[in-house]
Design goal:
The protein is built from 10 helices and 2 strands; from the N terminus they run H-H-H-H-H-H-H-E-E-H-H-H. By secondary structure, it is mainly α. It has one domain. A two-stranded antiparallel ribbon has the order 1-2. Strand 1 and strand 2 form a beta hairpin. Helix 1 runs antiparallel to helix 8 and helix 8 runs antiparallel to helix 9.
């Protein structure tokens, strides 16, 4: 998660935009009957998505996994926690704005307090005194805000290196990057931290699946619905993975 990250974010935003435009051509030919099956994921670009997912899997296996293993081997746990805290702290401004857009002033206030406390007392976010003070974190983003305000998730897309998304979430991430790349970089970096923690579990789930692509796609859709409902809606049975786990 170093300097090339911004370039990858820009490339992914452009790629997502291209897919959104392309979807207008394919949507009529491969429309999903959501009235009969609300859990069905709209995937008109499955061929492209499968190719990108396969590419991401190769990159994970050849590059990312060895880097994660090396990082865990040589980096002291306290430093790993500090990196995770700093990355998480960068996402708080987006959480505050997204919460306001949802009318959730309580969570917006908590996110603002967390950012101020952790950026000062926490030495630039390296520590998390806000949690110790009882100010719990609940992340929100523009994709969630759009969903709460009635926006459909749109079509499923797989972004190069960044992994599963959909047209609504990709647009939200692109707007975040345009406004300020730091929160999105923080979210991606936090995703890397979470991936390093759950690497073995993720491998076990995807390796045991008959179709890992479908597992990733459905898990992402379910997890986003879970986030949008703030955990108030039960997930379907089956493996549940965070979008960040697929980066």
């Amino acid at each position: 998660m170093n300097s090339p990250m911004v370039s990858r974010l820009v490339f992914s935003a452009i790629f997502a935009g291209s897919l959104i435009v392309a979807s207008s051509t394919f949507a009529e030919e491969k429309k999903v009957d959501t009235e009969n099956d609300e859990t069905q994921v709209s995937d008109p670009l499955e061929g492209i998505n499968r190719f990108t997912s396969g590419f991401n899997s190769i990159v994970r296996g050849v590059i990312i996994d060895p880097l994660v293993d090396g990082y865990q081997a040589i980096t002291p746990m306290f430093l790993q926690e500090a990196v995770g805290n700093a990355a998480s702290n960068l996402t708080e401004p987006v959480t505050a704005i997204s919460s306001i857009l949802q009318g959730d002033t309580e969570n917006a206030g908590k996110a603002t307090k967390r950012f101020l406390v952790n950026s000062t007392l926490g030495i630039g976010g390296l520590n998390d005194p806000a949690t110790e003070m009882g100010i719990e974190q609940r992340r929100e983003d523009l994709g969630q805000a759009a969903a709460v305000n009635g926006a459909d998730e749109g079509m499923y897309i797989v972004l190069p290196l960044l992994g599963p998304s959909n047209s609504r979430d990709a647009l939200g991430d692109a707007l975040t990057a345009i406004a300020s790349p730091l929160p999105l970089v923080g979210a991606v970096a936090q995703g890397g931290v979470e991936y390093s923690k759950n690497q073995d579990a993720i491998k076990t789930i995807t390796q045991g699946a008959l179709d890992p692509y479908v597992v990733e796609r459905d898990a992402y859709s379910q997890y986003r619905k879970f986030q949008i409902k703030n955990g108030e809606e039960s997930l379907q049975e089956g493996p549940t993975l965070d979008a960040s786990d697929f980066q």
